[in-house]
Amino acid sequence: MNGLKIKILEAIFEKYQQWIVNETFHCHRGCSLCCTQNVMVTAVEGQYIYDYIKQENKEAWFAEKLLRPRQAKSVKLTTNGFARICLGKKEDPLDEKPSQPTGICPFLEENCCTVYAARPFSCRGFASSRDCHDDGSALLSERLLAINTITMQLIEHLGQRENWGNMLDVLLALVTHPANKAVKKHINDDGIIKSAMANTSTAEPIPGFLWQPEEEHEAKNYLQTVLSAKIGEKTIEEIFNNK
Ligand code: SF4
User: Fold this and answer.
1) Measuring from each residue's beta carbon to the nearest atom of ligand 1, which residues come in under 6 Å?
2) How deeply is 93 buried, as exposed, middle or buried, from its count of CB atoms within 10 A (0-12, 13-18, 19+)?
3) Residue 241 falls inside a structural domain
4) 3-class DSSP state of 112
5) In DSSP terms, which residues pair with 109 in a beta bridge?
């Protein structure tokens, strides 16, 4: 995983946070109803977590979390895969049922996220404008859903051709990367790694966007803001287009 991708990921996180700064959320520290095992990530986001773990010297702790019994199902259809199918109208993407929220995220301790600084976008973008305890579900505005979808598509584009899937599967798949050998030495079960790899899908490039006409103006402005962010001498758009 190259450092450039991590820098782009950080820039996307930053632009997203700036864009939604005026949204009002009910979320607060200690509320963890949405911290299930059904979190989908790209390999770039997975490596971002590994880099944080390395910095914190928590490799043994992290390995123990990865080896815990799992309850979550895997999702095979990526966000860009979903967009590709919708835009091509070749098949019904809803054939794949979304997985149910089962199992608590292993990184949740005392109702707080232990990898908060490095949490993936699914955790950053999943916020609610009402108390989820009312009926167990979050409420996201159409505006936020559109911005979140664009952000997920951009992050998947960044990680294209790499693993995409359930966070725990992607993290286990990444443990064989040389940069993560300090975690790998605590995981002797190669079977669990192979099975996690088999559960992942491959991240795809952006095939187009699915925003509604009424969302188009803001969506395009947001997209342009993210793509024009500079990483060194180049914008994200130039890097994506290999210019
Ligand atoms: S990574 Fe952190 S924020 Fe995301 S589900 Fe797990 S505990 Fe919650």
Assistant:
1) 35, 39, 105, 107-108, 113, 115, 119, 123
2) middle
3) no
4) strand
5) 112
The one-letter amino acid code at 20 reads I
Host domain of residue 14: 3-236
- Number of C-beta neighbours around residue 117 at 10 A: 11
Cβ density class 3-15: b for 16+ within 10 Å, e for less:
eebbebbebbbeb
The rounded distance, in Å, linking the Cα atoms of 75 and 218 is: 29
Angle between helices 43-56 and 3-19 (to 10 degrees): 100
Angle at 64 between CA 10 and CA 35, to 5 degrees: 55
Number of domain units in the chain: 1
Q: Which atom of ligand 1 is nearest to the CA of 105?
A: 6
Residue 194 to residue 199: CA distance in whole angstroms: 9
pLDDT higher than 90, residue 27? no
> For residue 114, how far is its CA from the centre of ligand 1 (angstroms)?
8
Whether the Cβ atoms of residue 44 and residue 155 lie closer than 8 Å to each other: yes
Tell me whether residue 243 is in a domain: no
Query: Is 36 inside any structural domain?
Result: yes
The pLDDT assigned to 95 comes to 55
Calculate how far, in angstroms, residue 160's C-alpha sits from the geometric centre of ligand 1: 23
Q: Residue 32 falls within a domain, yes or no?
A: yes
pLDDT, tens digit, 9 for 90 and up, residues 157-184: 999 999 999 999 999 999 999 999 999 9
